[in-house]
Amino acid sequence: MENTSRPWHHYFNRRILICCFLGFSSGLPLFILLNLLQAWLAKSGLNVKALGLFALVMFPYTWKFLWSPLMDRYSLGKLGRRRGWMALTQGVLFVTIGVLGMLDPLTQLTPIVFFACLIAFFSASQDIVIDAYRREILPDNEQGLGQTVHVNAYKLAGLIPGSLSLILADLMSWQAVFWITAIFMLPGLICTLWIKEPVIYAPPPKNLKEAVFLPFREFIARDGWQGALWVLSFIFLYKLGDSMATALATKFYLDLGFSMTQIGVIAKTTGFWASIAGGIVGGVWMVKLGINRGLWIFGVVQAVAILGFAWLAKVGANQWLLAGVIGFEAFGVGLGTAAFVAYIAKTTDARYSATQLALFTSLSAVPRTFVNASVGYIVDQTGWFTFFLICFALALPGMMMLPKIAPWNEK
């Protein structure tokens, strides 16, 4: 039996290593669609309107809960319920990414759209099963650290299509670039074949009907409709203020008078590494704190960081203040995200983790997708300083729900 009493054991073990490999595999296809695909099409001469329409291929990430019951119900071959689906999606993604680069953007745009949609669909499907697998192999006291390692590996995967692949594109053909990028899916596939299926002590759904209805019935049956609405409202509200505050961040920096170079070097670089640092600190700290207290402490930091933008709006284009505000905000978001994703994982039932996680993560994306669409109108009416005060105020309702959702003294 493993010794879980020593703190170092929670930081370096096989489960955390698995989260790292699978997190990287999970993030790579998304950043291929966001970075590499856009660069390839733009260099091929596609106009900006057509490029904008390619954002529509991302719809599977929002609607993935619709087919998640299939992954809770059915197993694929000898690999089992989780590993079978992971191996299938990773293998298909490897081939699809490589084939995509062999098409001609000027004469084969329709097939390119089709393959991009396939990548988005199988990438979202891979996310469903990886999220479920991670929930099932991690004990509760490792959920925060495991989720953090996953998120940071997910972000690091963006350096391949967003940096390495673009550098290679100046040295070789796009076909070679896409196949080389696709090769980075293989470590995740090898990991899937190497790991073991998680042990679940409760039986999975017996048929598709159970896989569709039982996850929702179980969730509502825990504390009734009122308890379910509390949880869903908290998931919607906890990161609402922060999400809105950063929705038009680049526009905000430009309005203050910062140059594109300053934004790229200071804002983007500082934010990326500070976010990763916050996630790591948050995940490690939660091993001792617990998820509930992490939501309280990290939520406060996350909310207070929004006020830094209001300060910057008053001071104006100060490079040092920009770096400090962006770094602190990204660090706070890293902390808050570590606790938030751990809470979402803890809230699921292991029998239906694929379906419930897909539902919760889709709900948490709603503010980013729909509420943020109103940000431009609010800024136009209020100005930046007042807007950030509004964002800070919108961060408070989620915090005020914590005594009910995650009591401080309850582990």
Low-confidence stretches: 1-6
Helix-strand pattern:
HHHHHHHHHHHHHHHHHHHHHH
Oligomeric nature of the chains? single chain
Query: What is the distance, rounded to the nearest whole angstrom, between the alpha carbons of the first and last residues?
Result: 23 Å
Mean pLDDT across residues: 84
Radius of gyration: 21 Å
Largest sheet: none
Broad shape: globular
Strand content: under 5%
Helical stretch tally: 22
- Structural class of the secondary elements? mainly alpha
Fraction of residues in H or I helices: over 70%
The strand count comes to 0
Describe the structure.
42% of the residues are buried. The chain is an all-alpha fold and 411 residues long. Helix 7 crosses helix 18 and helix 15 packs parallel to helix 17 (319-347). It has helices spanning 7-11, 14-43, 48-53, 59-62, 68-73, 81-100, 109-137, 143-156, 159-169, 174-183, 186-194, 208-237, 240-245, 249-256, 260-289, 291-315, 319-347, 353-364, 366-369, 375-382, 384-400, 402-405. It has 22 helices and no strands. It is globular, with a radius of gyration of 21 Å.
Keywords, please?
411 residues, mainly alpha, 22 helices, globular, disordered N terminus
Give the secondary structure arrangement, pairings included.
Blueprint: H1 7-11, H2 14-43, H3 48-53, H4 59-62, H5 68-73, H6 81-100, H7 109-137, H8 143-156, H9 159-169, H10 174-183, H11 186-194, H12 208-237, H13 240-245, H14 249-256, H15 260-289, H16 291-315, H17 319-347, H18 353-364, H19 366-369, H20 375-382, H21 384-400, H22 402-405
Helix pairs in contact: 2-7, 2-8, 2-9, 2-11, 6-7, 6-10, 6-11, 7-18, 8-15, 8-17, 9-10, 12-18, 12-21, 15-16, 15-17, 16-17, 16-21, 20-21
